[in-house]
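step=encode ok
step=design start
structure_in=
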């Protein structure tokens, strides 16, 4: 997914000088300097997002990568205002999300963006197809149309034939496919993915990455993808940002970041990924797995590509 989308596509999302400070009392950043911010932190405030700015073009996969606690999940949740930012601007197709009233925000969440969470967020008492169609039900789409669209979305993610099952009957990978289908069926321009594959086993995770790459070629969504895994970021992203302590340390294409790390923090990530790509780590892993992998491949049906992973 490394085609450059910066020259030939319009900007769909622009984030300008975004801050999120978790504090006991409302924070006014006007006129605040570094000493004031240190005072806030000394009084228990947490600066989760610190003056972040970036643009994402239509059809681009923009990956935000960082370790746990870097602020990446807070940042992506600020975009649909699941978390309200302290200050800044979030411009989606020319409209500032931070200026939307409650009604406009509900409409924005229903029609302009869709989100895939790490822990699936499925409704346990509803079937797979009911989960996928739930957002369309909230929009007032007719039963027949939403079921047709949900079936089509499930087929795209390889879950045809699983429509009447419940989430508890599925493996982790299959549940995440349901989450992706639920996002796809909304047919929104902007897709937000918050570490969607991080809880999956390595082989299933790789398969889910393959699925996302294939789907992106078909639907050409604008995707913000959060991960703590550099190899995943390099594989999926057109461009990426490395985040640390609420700030973007470096932005660029995966190739630019791999070849020209901005500082020692990025260099440590890059050094590990170079070692993996050179085969020093990857070879030992795959040499021990071929027979098991082949057996799984033979036992997995086309309509249920993750069934062999077992159900949890």
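sequence_out=
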């Amino acid at each position: 997914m490394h085609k450059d989308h910066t020259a030939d596509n319009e900007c769909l999302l622009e984030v300008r000088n975004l801050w999120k400070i978790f504090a006991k009392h409302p924070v006014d950043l006007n006129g605040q300097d570094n000493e004031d911010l240190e005072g806030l932190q000394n009084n228990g405030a947490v600066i989760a997002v610190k003056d972040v700015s970036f643009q994402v073009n239509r059809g681009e996969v923009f990956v935000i990568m960082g370790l746990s606690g870097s602020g990446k999940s807070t940042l992506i949740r600020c975009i649909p205002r699941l978390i309200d930012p302290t200050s800044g601007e979030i411009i989606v197709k020319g409209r500032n999300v931070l200026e939307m009233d409650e009604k406009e925000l509900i409409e924005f969440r229903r029609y302009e963006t869709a989100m895939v969470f790490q822990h699936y967020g499925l409704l346990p008492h509803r079937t797979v197809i009911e989960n996928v169609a739930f957002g369309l039900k909230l929009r007032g789409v007719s039963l027949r149309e939403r079921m047709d669209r949900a079936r089509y979305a499930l087929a795209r993610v390889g879950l045809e034939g699983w429509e009447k099952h419940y989430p508890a009957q599925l493996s982790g990978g299959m549940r995440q496919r349901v989450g992706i289908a639920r996002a796809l069926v909304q047919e929104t321009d902007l897709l937000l993915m918050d570490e969607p594959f991080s809880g999956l086993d390595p082989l299933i995770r790789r398969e889910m990455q393959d699925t996302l790459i294939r789907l992106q070629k078909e639907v050409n969504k604008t995707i913000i993808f959060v991960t703590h895994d550099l190899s995943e970021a390099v594989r999926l992203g057109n461009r990426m940002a490395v985040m640390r302590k609420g700030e973007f340390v470096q932005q660029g294409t995966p190739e630019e970041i791999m070849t020209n790390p901005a500082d020692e923090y990025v260099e440590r990530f890059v050094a590990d990924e170079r070692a993996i790509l050179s085969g020093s780590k990857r070879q030992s892993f795959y040499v021990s797995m071929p027979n098991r992998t082949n057996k799984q491949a033979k036992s997995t049906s086309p309509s249920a590509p993750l069934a062999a992973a077992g159900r949890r």
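step=design ok
step=annotate ok -> Residues 23 and 43 are 9 Å apart (CA to CA).
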